[in-house]
Amino acid sequence: MELFNLTIHELHGMLNKGETTSEAITESVLGRIKAVDGKVRSYITVTEEVARTQAKQADQAGKSGKAPSPVTGIPVAIKDNMCTEGVKTTCASRILGNFIPPYNATVVENLNKAGYVMPGKANMDEFAMGSSTENSGYFVTRNPWDLERIPGGSSGGSAAAVAAGECIAALGSDTGGSIRQPAACCGVVGLKPTYGRVSRFGLVAFASSLDQIGPITKDVTDAAIIMNLIGGHDPKDSTSADLAMPDFTSSLKKDVKGMTIGIPREYFIDGMDPEVDRSVRDAVKTLEGLGAKVVDVTLPHTGYAVATYYILATSEASSNLARYDGVKYGFRAEGAKDLLDMYMKSRSQGFGPEVKRRIMLGTYALSAGYYDAFYKKGQQVRTLIKRDFDEAFKSVDVIATPTAPTAAFKIGEKSEDPLQMYLSDIFTISVNLAGIPGISIPCGFTKSNLPIGLQLLGKHFDEAAIFRAAFAYEQATDHHKKRPKL
Amino acid sequence: MKYEAVIGLEVHAQLQTNTKIFCGCETAFGEEANTRTCPVCIGMPGVLPVLNRKAIEYIIKTGLATNCRINAYSRFARKNYFYPDLPKGYQISQYELPVCEHGFVEIVVDGAVKRIGLTRIHLEEDAGKNLHTSESGASLVDLNRAGTPLMEIVSEPDIRTPDEAAEYLKKVRSILRYIEVSDADMEKGNFRCDINVSLRPVGAKEFGTRAEVKNVNSFKFVQKALEYEIKRQAQVLDEGGKVIQETRLFDSNKGVTFSMRSKEEAHDYRYFPEPDLVPVATAEEVIENIRKTIPELPDAKRERFVREHGLPEYDADMLTQSRAMAAYFEETVKLAGQPKVVSNWMMGELWRLLNADNKEIENSPVKPERLAGMIRLIDAGTISTKIAKTVFDEMYKSGKDAETVVKEQGLTQVSDTGAIEQIISDVVKANPGQHADYKAGKEKLFGFFVGQVMKASKGKANPEMVNELLKKKLSE
Questions:
Q1: What is B417-474's CATH number, 1.10.630.10, 1.10.10.410, 3.10.129.10, 1.10.10.10?
Q2: Which residues on chain B are in Cβ contact (under 8 Å) with A127?
Q3: C-beta atoms of B47 and A237 within 8 A
């Protein structure tokens, strides 16, 4: 087995036993990037030099007897919307094409302290707006399982890199499904933590009340390992929760005895791919076989989630993206006549079409005379959606749904129809609106060998429950062991 | 027609915190451009605001000092607009649920107390500054000021005249300085004012259409801008026209206001709750602890000065405009008694000299114990009140105490009967014509003789003795 195909915990074990070095792992990953990234195109920036320096440091620290963290010396890719000091952070946007942050995101700082290795900055939909990575301002990332297909999005680069062995694990961000949906498309594990569990400091904001950073990994254990390192209170983020963090690896047990799993009828809809439907139902049966009690639940306001999301997320985005004005950093258009012209030209040329569409939508929704009908109403419906989950979680520990209605679609298939594209996130969006944690794990493959994702949802700050269910399922199945042929 | 003005004021006061409202940068001024900045206050991607607790403490203190209700929950909102000095493209301010609501301050109008309601006091961040250089034609941005904490104090439309407006502003400034939350210095730009003014026929209940005059930066200009606006609107109405709802600016050189933008051109700020900050919860206990830090406020002090020291209202009002002034007064009275005499010296000689030097009373070269010492010399008859003015001037200039000045300059009052009689005798001898006229009934000439005697004694002769002895001598 090539080193790049292994997991964090496998490599950590080998490092501990002296069977390999961080340099060897890093070279394996960098070599893999050289070999396949021309096809997959996961990375906007490959940081070879940074990675080699960090690998050397990790090996030296090991020699000097310093106790390694579980990710010491392990290459973890960073989505390009997380600030990395001295390393270009573009958000896959032309408008930040030349932006080099003078600071690290808190998650990056935490991984730095843990001695990780950064192989590069992963491609994404521009400003995390999209479900296919086709909205990247630079290029489209391809699904390692089928290069004609999308890897999902917006964390498509992170998910594809993990699936293709171009890193050992990755960080993604999830505003409406942007970790879970690409994880499902690429056959890897992706966790969106509870809102407030992971610091957003240094994450370039799309929709501040929905954004969360989380791990994309090859298995559930790795996701728990990363969560232990990136989670917890951050004084730099007022919305990060000041709560004790459990050791998530200790919640990885092989059974789900005594757990109740709810199946929301609203998530098994007409128009869902029958193969997805079957795989998810089979997965639920597997969990039942492992000792879980399965019951029906209802989430009656599910039908309003997409509309609510596209009002609230775009409203926040229209304000969050106002700072890209050509004045201080980033792209400034040439030849402006005056200030207004500079704003208009810089923003028209710097942002891509989907970003502009969402800025316009959000600006409209917040406008005088429309605020009550859109933004305020959206907030009210958001409360109802959250209450749906609160109600359901009174009787269940975990809710199981498909992650996405279909497996990965073809590149270009939905890019002309934004509404169709928005429906890719129909099963993931409510989770962000409610602020609860959700994980996507591989639960099978279509006949054409495309991965299918099972989504498990938990109560606020109860990532432990979904880790436990996910781990038990994973141990009982082999889907997570499959790797795409490239 | 006779009109009544309806005036409301919005005051922006900078809080004197050491650091900015949402980051750790210091709130220093006059520093080199962009040296008091960090990724947070220059709006870099991905950074987040963290609320300065001191700013919350200060605004609560202000709310308590102005009889406001302190909301148990308040929240921040984003005010969205584009301008180069606004690095995020939005200002973090408050919209629904400000920290303080429903307060009032009292002003004295024509000897009567009038209450001016406060609608709300909220927190927000200041913007930076655009600098337009003529040489290169380029505009530059200095973000040192960006993120400085501001309080916006919004009054009810309870003010009726430009004088009331000035009194209101003085009272607000005085309170802010008493509770030490703001320098409230208009010249430094840390106390700015927006004016809302409309007219209605005297006796009418309905408000007229208002105009807003933005960013007026001195008390005098506020009065001038209001006087002009009232005249302008009255003229528009008298001519059968309508006042347009608009934003105007005040040209202090010409003393006129002019239109900046109409209501149609007004910004739509698209306010919405700031998702990067959690609501501010303020416990009753916190409020009570802050309440304990509030000193005696100007109104209470003024009343006490009248009651305890027997000062006239006017003196009490003037002496309580600043805490330092009031403290100076009370300290001097403690040492020398005679509150009215102390008040006269402070409001006369001391203010004249301080004003000429543009000095605050805290930096007065004459400290309370020195002023008290001088007053004691007057009491003892060592110097006359007239000579005391010379002595005070010298004390102010040299920083010496009264006794030293009197000794060094030989200013001790002459109260020796023989010496005064000798001077009088010389003066009468030297002016025989006037003496004859006086005796013939021209009693007005008495003043002439007093003047001559004082002059001859270089002002040191005891005036009472001069009067007495002169009268005797002239009638001989």
A1: 1.10.10.410
A2: none
A3: no
Which residues on B lie below 8 Å from A371 (Cβ)? 270-272
Q: What percent of chain A has pLDDT over 70?
A: 100
CA dihedral (A358, A362, A367, A370) positive or negative: positive
Contacts of A208 in chain B (CB under 8 A): 275-276
Give the number of C-alpha atoms closer than 13 A to the C-alpha of residue B304, restricted to the C-beta side: 11
CATH 3.20.20.150 is right for the domain spanning A3-260+472-481? no
The answer to whether the Cβ–Cβ distance between A101 and B49 falls below 8 Å is no
The first and second tokens of residue B223, run together, are 């009065």
Strand partners, A122: A43, A79
* pLDDT tens-digit readout, A31-46: 999 999 999 999 999 9
Of B43, B139, B270, the CB nearest to A363: B270
Show me where the domains of chain B are located. 3-290, 298-409, 417-474
Task: Tell me the catalytic residues of A.
Answer: 79, 154, 178
Who among A83, A208, A209 is closest to B45 (CB)? A83
B173 interface with A at CB cutoff 8 Å: no
| B4 phi, psi to nearest 5 deg | -120, 135
Q: What Rg do the C-alpha atoms of chain B give, in angstroms?
A: 30
DSSP output for A232-285:
S--TT-TTS---PPP-GGGG--S--TT-EEEEEGGGS-TTS-HHHHHHHHHHHH
Do the interacting molecules here have an ipTM over 0.90?
yes
pLDDT at A12 over 90: yes
DSSP state of B5: E
